[in-house]
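To whoever is on call:

I kicked off a structure prediction for a single chain this morning and the downstream step that reads the tokens threw a length-mismatch warning. I double-checked the sequence; it's 313 residues and nothing unusual in it as far as I can see. Pasting both halves so you can look.
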Amino acid sequence: MNEDGHVSCPPIDAALVRRLVHARFPQWADLPVRPVEHGGWDNRTFHLGDVMTVRLPSGEGYAAQVEKEHRWLPTLAPQLPLPVPTPLAKGAPAEGYPFSWSVYGWLEGENAGVGHIDDLTEFATALAGFLAALQQVDPTDGPKAGQHSAFRGAPLETYDAETRRTIEALDGRIDGRTATAVWETALQATWNGGPVWFHGDVAVGNLLVRDGKLAAVIDFGCSGVGDPACDATIAWTLLSGESRQAFRDVLAVDDAMWARGRGWTLWKALITLADPDTAHAASAQRSLDHVLDEYGQAQRTGEAGRFPRAAGG
């Protein structure tokens, strides 16, 4: 444990993974270990042979996600129209690594991106169908939104103070007045439904494409039951125009959920832009531009005002 009371973690590399596998699963000790091309941030992922992966939480805040995925992915998988990760084994802390870790079956595919997708509207339709099916899974006893989900699925108010501080900190770099209007509109678009399953991190790195089509959805570490509006963020981070509208139509997103999804996208783009060490500033700026532009269009057509309008909006 380090000085601030958090559990310290050694560097997560292929050598550590080999030692962990050798100690816990000797039947796989001779299989090669190598990093995946895009290993993630919350977790580090490595190939184990040709048909498995090893996934290790990168910090204490992500450790609870291991148990959650092992508990719930086998329940969710048969009820979903696309493949999701299959937990094969769970490793215990060892070799100086302080958290539980997972072995999964490997899912073939490339990270989603415009250059990998043949038809973005078809992709959006398939993704919306997947999320609609996820929302239909019985939420009884599912993990309620909270710290384990980075508060995805919880009320946006969780991040109100942070969002407002960040808008102020980015003064001169962004349109703060419109960003504030987007945020306040999202806060006023309250969610009154019962809890449903959400994925929690519908991002290009967690959507796999094969032969130009959506082939699998991975990384359920932020999943849980609560408000599914957080899953709408892909509408601004990847989709646009016809594909964005197709996503909204198939998922049957009402105006209030759309506004909250816009708010979630705004929050993530802002905190990314405010991070001086980020390598994702360009993509965050694009997402922010899409949010502000789409909000402006919705205002002009009256579609942003079917619930109490934000101050300054």
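Update from on-call: the warning came from a stale cache, not from the record. Cleared it. Sanity check on the structure: The CA atoms of residues 189 and 256 lie 5 Å apart.
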